[in-house]
């Protein structure tokens, strides 16, 4: 009986803390509602199996990307009429405001278009050149990630923290590959080497969710080449507020125009940077196994 009461008091304290965290946010309370509305709209289209259109040879877009952006931008303008918005599908308002939202109305379009349920809505807020807030909503799992500078990061209202994994050899990592100019991207080398040097590398297909996974301790690290501001703005705030770190591949500061993103739980960051420098220098790099040799041996 006593134990049940103690649990009850503990749950109430937890609930109070969760509510307190959510109410102390200035922007992401309303932004999360907007992202959730966008996510619900995505799920309606997801159920309908929408047609694929092409922005490039493997760069897909659907009606859901455009409809979601329209809805998010309308809601953001209604909530904060003086804020500017940059959206992946063409929105650009530049009134000279000190605030600008970076909106990815559907991160993970290729997954979405093929019926693979890994995608999200991502919205990050910049103030005078500094990222200050971010919200990522995954409608397939009903998960809302939110963070504001100096106020911590939450998942469905509960505080989250990066993982405690201290060694690269014991880590799980995420990465992604661009759909634009993909034949020029060297990331397959990094994918190969880091797969051999960790517990494994996942390529889930949504950079925003990958960053949310670092923030919530599901991944120990994430990297990608050539992401855009709308892919990273929200996730970077989440990682930082959850105790992690984001830099470029040479430990330079990350900013929205950085073409390289390296995010981690901090503990493995130095090791990751060292490995990136080694791979760039071609030191200690094992060659990709030859498919030709494999096939020859198989025929013997
Ligand atoms: C893509 C996803 C993917 C990443 C690509 C992005 P989109 O965004 O985030 O994981 O590897 O580089 O372009 O096109 O689905 O919004
Ligand atoms: Ca994206
Ligand atoms: Ca997108």
Characterization of this structure:
With 300 residues, the protein is of the alpha+beta class. It has 2 domains: 6-160, Fructose-1,6-Bisphosphatase, Chain A, domain 1 (2-Layer Sandwich), CATH 3.30.540; 168-281, D-Maltodextrin-Binding Protein, domain 2 (3-Layer(aba) Sandwich). Helices cover 40% and strands 22% of the residues. It has helices at residues 2-24, 28-48, 63-79, 109-113, 187-196, 207-215, 229-241, 269-281, 291-299; strands at 53-54, 60-61, 84-87, 99-107, 120-127, 130-138, 143-148, 152-155, 158-159, 172-175, 200-202, 221-225, 245-247, 260-264. Strands 3-4-5-6-7-8-9 form a 7-stranded mixed beta sheet, sandwiched between helices. A 5-stranded mixed beta sheet has the order 11-10-12-14-13, with helices on both faces. It has a two-stranded antiparallel sheet with strand order 1-2. A hairpin with a 2-residue loop joins strand 8 (152-155) and strand 9 (158-159). Residues 104, 107, 207, 231 line the site of one calcium ion. One calcium ion binds at residues 104, 107, 207, 231.
């Amino acid at each position: 009986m006593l134990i049940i009461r103690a649990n009850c008091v503990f749950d109430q304290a937890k609930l109070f803390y969760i509510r307190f965290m959510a109410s102390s946010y200035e922007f992401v309370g309303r932004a999360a509602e907007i992202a959730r509305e966008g996510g619900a709209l995505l799920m309606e289209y997801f159920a309908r199996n929408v047609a694929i259109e092409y922005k490039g040879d493997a760069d897909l877009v659907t009606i859901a990307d455009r409809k979601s952006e329209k809805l998010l931008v309308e809601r953001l303008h209604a909530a904060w009429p003086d804020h500017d918005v940059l959206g992946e599908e063409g929105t650009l308002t530049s009134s000279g405001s000190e605030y600008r939202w970076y909106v990815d109305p559907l991160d993970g379009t290729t997954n979405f278009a093929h019926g693979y349920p890994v995608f999200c809505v991502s919205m990050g807020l910049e103030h005078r050149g500094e990222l200050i807030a971010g919200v990522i909503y995954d409608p397939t799992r009903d998960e809302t990630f939110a963070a504001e500078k100096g106020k911590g990061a939450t998942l469905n209202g509960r505080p989250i923290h990066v993982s405690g994994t201290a060694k690269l050899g014991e880590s799980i990592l995420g990465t992604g590959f661009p759909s634009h100019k993909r034949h020029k991207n060297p990331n397959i080398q990094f994918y190969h080497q880091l797969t051999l040097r960790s517990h494994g590398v996942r390529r889930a297909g949504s950079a925003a969710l990958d960053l949310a996974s670092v923030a919530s301790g599901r991944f120990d690290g994430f990297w990608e080449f050539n992401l855009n501001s709308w892919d990273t703005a929200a996730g970077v705030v989440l990682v930082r507020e959850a105790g992690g770190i984001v830099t470029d591949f040479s430990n330079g500061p990350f900013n929205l125009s950085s073409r390289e993103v390296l995010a981690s739980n901090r503990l493995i960051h130095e090791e990751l940077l060292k490995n990136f420098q080694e791979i760039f220098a071609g030191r200690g790099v094992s060659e990709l196994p030859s498919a030709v040799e494999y096939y020859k041996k198989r025929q013997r």
